[in-house]
Task: structure prediction
Amino acid sequence: MNDAARTPAGGGGTPEVTATIAGLRSRIADARAGGASVAFVPTMGALHDGHLALVARARELADVVVVSIFVNPLQFGPGEDLERYPRTLDADVAALTGTGAAFVFAPTVAEMYPDGPAATRVVAGEVGGLYEGASRPGHFDGMLTVVAKLLNIVQPDAVVFGQKDAQQVFLVRRMVRDLDLPVAVEVVETVRESDGLALSSRNRFLGDAERRTALVLSEALSAAADAAGDGAPEALAEAVAAFGDHDGAELDYFVIVDPATFLPVADDATGPALALVAARVGATRLIDNRRVVLG
Ligand code: PAF
Result:
């Protein structure tokens, strides 16, 4: 860790906010000239403790931490919650104050897409069309496209993502390998409320009753983990049964995948696997996941 580079670049105070690519690049160039390493946390804002855990990890990894806050229209489909998605820049900057984040990159849509929606896109491939991608066509192409753009803008040594978006993590790792992007991908465990609810920017949309209903996601994952020793079909059956106990939660998918391929495991699979769940609670779509060991 290079303290000389860290302090002038933001230290523990309020991060410097920049809305332009040129402005961010010049600040990062200055930090690099001082010998600093750079870690990057891409976000869509509405920051919560899960994001702050990513920043804390980024701070461990590099001298200078850059956080982007950009609600990327490319990854929202028609009828999704692009307009409703919370935009809370002032609160986000306040939340980042004292975390060691040096720079917040908060561009406008016009700054990121000056010629309109990007004509050139990253294509997520087969896994990009499954699970989240099946429910949200084009989502992962849009996500990978903006992540590629952000990585080109920031050019960090490391980029930090949360395990809650497991399919996103898988696809970003794949993109980094496929395109030989010179960045280390770091993943931080999901941060949960004490009752198990995974932190999400969308949790703020939940009313009190919906908040209780939303626990079905982590409960279904626990049920699957408990039954996993009996095999994938049993684990899936227990998870789906957990949804039967909760009115108001509409299951989108529950699937157990091979972490190496992200394809569904065979019925007789054994060993480590990843259970993924998505459900709609009221008007809010939530996702979660958990590692399980199939017996
Ligand atoms: O996980 C998110 O918040 C977004 O998908 C990301 C990675 C910031 C890209 O817009």
